[in-house]
Amino acid sequence: MTLPNDAPLSKLQFYVTTPYACGYIESKLAQSLIASPQHLVDAKTYNGLIQLGFRRSGKFVYRPHCELCNACIPVRIPINDFIPKRSQRRAVKSHESLSVAIIPLEFSEEHFALYTAYQVARHSGNKDQESAEQYRNFLVQSNVESVMVEFRLGDQLKMVSVVDIVSDGISAVYTFYDASDAHASYGTYNVMWLIKWCKRLKLDYLYLGYWIKESPKMAYKQNFVPQEALIDGEWQLL
């Protein structure tokens, strides 16, 4: 895939990282293509990059660039065509008592505690607990238009979703929630809420990041249909 001859994008340079352990497919190595310098990747520039399959982690904007693997497929939901399944409607109904607040990116001890508990519950394979500084770099820093969405049950924080707002949609960066409630469907409810928010903002797409067939962590994304994938440089219905 080539980069468009667009003025903001033409000012960027792109470099490939050294190989590192893939976080999704065991025993594989991964590489990323990084947009640089970071300070030039503003909201307008990012609008173009996300169309090309790039994502954001803190101030780093990247896309997979693995020499022998193309398992990471960017996917998005076309909002006006989305048809909820019965289970998704149930998730909305079961969590309709949650209150929602849209706030600026900011560090909160309450958020960090929920994030840490979520990592332990859902990603126990990672033995090293992230520091507050690592959390800040990952989720509280951004050069683009980003917000946090808080979901509470009464005074209890139940879920936080970090999202970017781009010209044609909302990009779900990362979501963490109270994983101690085995009967909750917070992840599904979050996607459904973001779809509804897209409609309210008159935006066309909800970007869900990468889908990886071999990764069970990514399986939930295929439950939201119809869905478009970026394949061979073109967004097309799966």
From TrEMBL:
| One annotated GO biological process | ubiquitin-dependent protein catabolic process via the N-end rule pathway
EC number(s) reported in the record: 2.3.2.29
Sequence ranges assigned to domain N-end rule aminoacyl transferase C-terminal in this UniProt record: 110-230
From what superkingdom does this record's organism come? Bacteria
Indicate the enzyme's highest-level EC class: transferase
**Pfam families, alphabetized:** ATE_C (PF04377), ATE_N (PF04376)
Keyword terms: Acyltransferase, Cytoplasm, Transferase
Write down any Gene Ontology CC term: cytoplasm
Q: Which reaction does it catalyse?
A: N-terminal L-aspartyl-[protein] + L-leucyl-tRNA(Leu) = N-terminal L-leucyl-L-aspartyl-[protein] + tRNA(Leu) + H(+); N-terminal L-glutamyl-[protein] + L-leucyl-tRNA(Leu) = N-terminal L-leucyl-L-glutamyl-[protein] + tRNA(Leu) + H(+)
Q: Where in the cell is it found?
A: Cytoplasm
Family matches, as InterPro entries: Acyl_CoA_acyltransferase, Asp_Glu_LeuTrfase, N-end_Aminoacyl_Trfase, N-end_Aminoacyl_Trfase_C, N-end_Aminoacyl_Trfase_N
Ranges for domain N-end aminoacyl transferase N-terminal come to 21-90
Principal place where this protein is found? cytoplasm
One GO molecular-function entry: leucyl-tRNA--protein transferase activity
What is the recorded function of this protein according to its Swiss-Prot or TrEMBL entry?
Answer: Functions in the N-end rule pathway of protein degradation where it conjugates Leu from its aminoacyl-tRNA to the N-termini of proteins containing an N-terminal aspartate or glutamate.
Q: Which PANTHER family match?
A: ARGININE-TRNA-PROTEIN TRANSFERASE 1 (PTHR21367), ARGINYL-TRNA--PROTEIN TRANSFERASE 1 (PTHR21367:SF1)
Q: What family does this belong to?
A: Belongs to the R-transferase family. Bpt subfamily.
What is this protein's record name? Aspartate/glutamate leucyltransferase
What lineage is this protein's organism placed in? Bacteria, Pseudomonadati, Pseudomonadota, Betaproteobacteria, Nitrosomonadales
